Amino acid sequence: MTTFSFIQVTDHHLGESEDALVRGFSPAYALRRVLAHIAAHNASQADFIFSTGDLVEPATEAAYRSLRRMLNLKAAANPPGPGHITLEGLVDFPAYFIPGNHDERQNFLRGMFAEAPAAQLVNTSFTHKGVQFICPDWGAQAKAVMHSTTLAFLASALQTNLPVIIVSHHHLAPVGVRWMDDFLAEDVDRFWQIVSAPVAREKILGILCAHVHLTYELQVEGIPVYGLRSTAFPLARTDEPLLTLQPPQYRLVTVREGSLATQVFEVTL
Questions:
Q1: How many helices (H) and strands (E) would you count in the chain?
Q2: What is the rounded distance in angstroms from the CA atom of residue 151 to the CA atom of residue 119?
Q3: Containing domain of residue 253, as a range?
Q4: CA dist., res. 19 & res. 238, Å (int)
Q5: What is the pLDDT of residues 45-81, one digit of tens each?
């Protein structure tokens, strides 16, 4: 297995134009600042960027058109990519995209990929330098659903002989914030039963999650689980939803000698 690195960004919530604001906050400006920081500091050591969902809000055709224009996206044929983006110092940089709960699936597929067929769930996988990336889709709602088709896809994909990184928009383990953890699937144990089986667990280098706009690192069933602060309006660890003025973050992930290491970078706006 070759040593390589990639970058996770997440939860951009871009509007139907770059000028769109959310409570006075500019998601497009924040994402541009994050991508500029990546270009200046970490792009040279990363093979690709992975955007882990909630690309736009609302998930209209106009919003995806605006996102494509902003990224100067050369679309991939099918999800999750890679497409190629050019902006803020990045030139034809490979980028993968999965949908979040705010990404209406048909508009996401039409907007981000050139040949993708219609689908209610976007379960995808790909291999990069000897590592299998498995991307299960838990649906277009805030509360994850352990769809039987997604669980079957996951179980089948884990039959690979390669090391595995699982990438999920929805979080899959409690983060200790009541209202956020209400969004965990009622039967999330079905996921953990599959991935914690010895034949699967020994392959899994780590699980990357999004959705709750928080950065965290956990160990669940012996598997590292990572969450990441959003590029758009981070949320506080409070009992009720509260937007914060914390700066956005991104995660540099390095795969080396059968293990996974990460470093989080914070971007001043």
A1: 7, 12
A2: 16
A3: 4-266
A4: 29
A5: 999 999 999 999 999 999 999 999 999 999 999 999 9
